[in-house]
Amino acid sequence: MSTAIATATADRSSSPATPRGFRARLYAREAKYELLKVLRVPAYVLPTLAFPCVFYIFFGVIFGRQAMGPISMGAYMIATFGAFGVIGASLFGFGVGVATERGQGWMLVKRATPMPLSAYFLAKTVVSVLFGAAIVLLLSVLGYTLGGVRIEPLTWLGLAATLVVGAIPFCAFGLVLGYLAGPNSAPAIVNLVYLPMSFCSGLWMPVQILPPFLKRLALFLPPYHFGQLALGWLGADEGGSPPGHVAFLAVFTLICLAAARWAYLRDEGKTYG
Amino acid sequence: MLETKPNVATPVAELRGVVKRYGKVTALAGIDLALQPGQLTAILGPNGAGKTTVVKLLLGLARPSGGSVDLFGAAPNDPATRRRRGAMLQIGKVPEVLTVREHLDLFASYYPRPLPIAEALRRAGLERFADRRFGELSGGERQRTLFALALVGDPELLFLDEPTVGMDVEARRALWQEIRRAVAEGRSVVLTTHYLEEADALAERVVVLHQGRILADGPPAAIKRQAALRRIRCRTLLGEAELAALPGVRAVTRDGDRVELLVGDAEPAVRELLARDPTLIDLEVRSAGLEEAFLALTATPRGVDAAA
Fold it and tell me: A214 partner at 20 to 30 Å CA-CA among A175, A267, B127, B190?
């Protein structure tokens, strides 16, 4: 029996061919189960979707028909609270998700397997992007039905696509937070970063209303650039250059990914015995 | 240190001069270990001996502070290497909302040629629980799921870190059966445990680890001979120096007039004790556990053991 295994072993290690579609199946399954893991926890799903909607109803619908520059407040806030919601879904999905799985030792088990780190990151990104899309859809529906918001279909598509793709920098940032925070402190740390950063970027109160000092600070905050790109579709941004905003976010993403990789390599699972 | 019989096969894993420090704590203080293919090697030691650290280093989950580790002749976390092994680690929690089958499905996708899910379920005795969520499983069922996850990749090398902790006797024996079967299929197995009985039941080779060093390395019978000590308890007025001088005494602990002696053979020491102190009471003689055996093996000066 040992010889049979030995031969099979030799075959396996010397054979270069792996079954077709193996990698695709790996990435697909990782994404599928990452999504199932989240969808089965209503306590996560509902607040993540409801939070930006509630904000939108209070600020965007109630003041909906007031003007905000060239557009209505209702339209303006689809962009800003859309960005806010997308950022939240990414930061919490990654920040709390990764920190928790590290604390439980589950990350260690997965690292011992042949799972590539990129599959894990991509799977969680897919989940965050889907949540982001759901949030944008919900806000748009609320805006259309309750806020009297009317946006050209193609413009809306551009806005929605920008908001959804814009999740990616914040997935990377969430990953860094997930490695810096412990499982118990993660929700608090994420909130402490998420809320002030979003506020100072003009995602709650329009940036035009913020005091001059905060307006200058906003230029250094990724959510500001994200918000501006979204508002640009509605003609309500501050006139900055879209490529400039994209470049800022791209560099930010790369820095976060590098930092996360560094943290991943030095993490030796000391959170348990 | 006992030698294993010479084996010309290439080691399946090797630690050379490995040192591991966590801040000021030295977890491993110089380990040389070559694991042979097709064998079950048990790494035996009390808690804190460094067993889990050895496993983490072999899996590439941590890097040594000194020395080198290789698996199948390559770096431990090399992707090709990772596909040839499976690991069952001691962890806090597993995502609870996924079912056993779903966990297995995911892990199977990491390997190009995994076992069929049904097969992995059968081996771990989990067929009835396949569609139950992890959170709904009992402790023993959870352990078996982790075992199934280690096995589903059809690995050549299996790491089991304290696999039967928290299991009842029946579950433990059932898992031992499966572990024996894995070895019979030609897999190499590294098993860590603090149960001498488990090492004895499963291993061809036992490596005894204590405070980051290898104390002994050999077949289970030899290890049992070295580690089988007896514990004598009594209340006596004899002084520590006198007690330490009794035949076969390895260690003495004293608390007021209550005294505990660790000895090789109990009878000579007991005879002397009774002869020297006729007022002695509450005499008790038992097998010493592994902890005491290790303490005695490493404590060269015979005297008061402050740690006990």
Answer: A175
